[in-house]
Known about the structure:
The protein has about 130 residues and is mostly helical. It contains 5 helices and 2 strands. Helix 1 packs antiparallel against helix 2 and helix 1 (about 15-45) runs antiparallel to helix 3 (about 65-80). The longest helix has 30 residues, at about 15-45.
Amino acid sequence: MKGLSDFDRELWPPVLPVHFGFQIMVGLGAVMAIVAAWSLVVLARGRDILANRNLMRALAVVTPFGFIATEAGWTVTEVGRQPWVVQGLMLTSDAVTPMPGVVVPMVLFTILYIGLAAIVVALIRSMVAETR
């Protein structure tokens, strides 16, 4: 198995983001597994999960962890393969296609998604207000 020291330094991916991304991914996965095991223990004892306030708090805290861990894993994959698009065959710098005018669709999509996010927030707020 070849390690980083077997390659020229200029062919190394940025090590720090890959390392931290991996640590975040594994750490959040471990926390989610612990909370899941806690939930199973509560259920196995025949108790109601909703009555356990600390477990409910923990479940609320870990709710976004799956998404964050997925993004961290994506960072590990994409940053870790740099500078290659195709390992050993094509560098990222050789694969870039010049795209003039890409700013316009990017701005339009950004405005669209900000608008959609505002609509979602307004709808959720109105649904929460109805339950009070």
